[in-house]
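ARCHIVE CARD
CATEGORY: sequence design from structure
SOURCE FIELD: tokenized fold
FIELD CONTENT:
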């Protein structure tokens, strides 16, 4: 999307490997020129940003980036293009090295998967937890009820 802010200059795209020429704009100039109103974010007023036709907008606002934009910005597109070609001379395209596709399994991998059998869990964890809780309750009941019946029940208690 083109910017409403006027073009302040041109610069070679700072993105490595792009090679396009970017337009440089200042934040808030359109609103000041046409409506006289200040943009919502007053701290960014006047800061430079670039719009590359290939990489899209770059709104880096750090002080080093702002000074770099001010020093390397050119008044015409041709001057920026000449500087871009001087910095990055045209070189032959690097050869593409084809690598084997690792996402497809080999035939040996298929055979290996068919013969490898991994043990599976026989009981579900929820069932094991339920069994543990139930056995704990039975043990607790047996211990508590056993303390009450220590006296003989035949009525021949020693006196």
């Amino acid at each position: 999307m083109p910017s409403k802010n006027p073009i302040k200059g041109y610069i070679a795209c700072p993105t490595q490997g792009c090679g396009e020429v970017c337009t440089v704009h200042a934040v808030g100039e359109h609103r000041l020129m046409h409506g006289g109103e200040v943009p919502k974010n007053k701290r960014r007023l006047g800061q430079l940003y670039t719009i590359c036709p290939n990489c899209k907008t770059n709104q880096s606002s750090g002080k080093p980036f702002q000074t770099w934009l001010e020093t390397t910005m050119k008044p015409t597109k041709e001057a920026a293009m000449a500087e871009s070609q001087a910095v990055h001379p045209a070189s032959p395209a690097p050869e593409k090295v084809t690598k084997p596709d690792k996402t497809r399994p080999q035939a040996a991998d298929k055979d290996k998967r068919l013969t490898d059998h991994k043990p599976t869990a026989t009981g579900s964890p929820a069932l094991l937890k339920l069994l543990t809780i139930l056995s704990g309750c039975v043990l607790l009941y047996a211990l508590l009820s056993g303390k009450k019946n220590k006296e003989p029940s035949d009525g021949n208690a020693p006196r």
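CARD ANNOTATION: The helical segments are 29-34, 63-72, 77-87, 107-115, 125-148. The longest strand covers residues 7-12.
SHELF: design records, drawer C
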